[in-house]
Amino acid sequence: xxxxxxxxxxxxxxxxxxxxxxxxxxxxxxxxxxxxxxxxxxxxxxxxxxxxxxxxxxxxxxxxxxxxxxxxxxxxxxxxxxxxxxxxxxxxxxxxxxxxxxxxxxxxxxxxxxxxxxxxxxxxxxxxxxxxxxxxxxxxxxxxxxxxxxxxxxxxxxxxxxxxxxxxxxxxxxxxxxxxxxxxxxxxxxxxxxxxxxxxxxxxxxxxxxxxxxxxxxxxxxxxxxxxxxxxxxxxxxxxxxxxxxxxxxxxxxxxxxxxxxxxxxxxxxxxxxxxxxxx
Length: 280
What we know:
By secondary structure, this protein is mainly α. The protein has 14 helices and two strands. The longest helix has 28 residues.
C-alpha cells in the first residue's frame, strides 16, 4: 500500500497547491471544502498508474490526475444539490455548508481549474471534453429520460460514471505519450471499471451501513433515482454478478497493452477486482 500512498500523496500535494491558488479566499475555502475533504482519489490514481504502466513517470500525469479529480468533485457538488443530500464523505455537503449559490460557483471554479491543467495538451482536452459531454448526457438521462431496461441502465452507467473513468485512464496514457491503440485499450478498461463501480454503488445504497459508507443510504429509492436494482428485478447478489462481468471485461481490455511497469499494471488489475467487493 505504500506504493499507492506515494502516488496519492503526489496528487494530494498538487491538489492542495491548486486549491491554494484559487482567488478570492472565500472561493478557495469553498473549493477546498469539497476537493480536500477526503475521498478515495480513485480516478487520479488510475491516471498515474496507467501512465507508469505504459512507460511514463508519475510526474507526467499528476496534473492530469488532479484535473480529473476536480471535475469529479465538481460533479458531486451538483449531484448533492439535485439529491438534497446534506452529507458527503462524512462531512457537510457544499450546498448544506455554504448555500446553493456559493456551492454552484465553487463547482464552476473547480471545472475552470481543471481545464487550465488540461489545456497544455490538445489530446487531453479532447479526452476530457468527450467525457464531459457523456457525463452531461448521463445526468440528463437520469433526471428526465429514465432507463427502462437493463440495457438502457448500462448505457446510463457508462455515461454517468464510466466516461470519467475512461478519461482518467486515457489521460495517463496521453501523459506518457502512448499511441492511440494503447489509449483506446486503457480507456475501455477504465470505462468498464467505472460501470462496475456504479453497479456496486447501487448495491451499497440498498445494503450498506450509512456510517460506514460516509453518506446516506436509501437515496435511490427516496429520490426515485434509477439504479440497476430499481430498473430491473435483480437482487443485490445478481447485481453484483453484473459488476463482476464488467470487471472481467476490464481485465481483458487491460491485457491488450504493452506493459512497461509490471507493478503499476498489477495495481490496475487489483483495482478492477476491488471495485466489485468494496464496502465504501
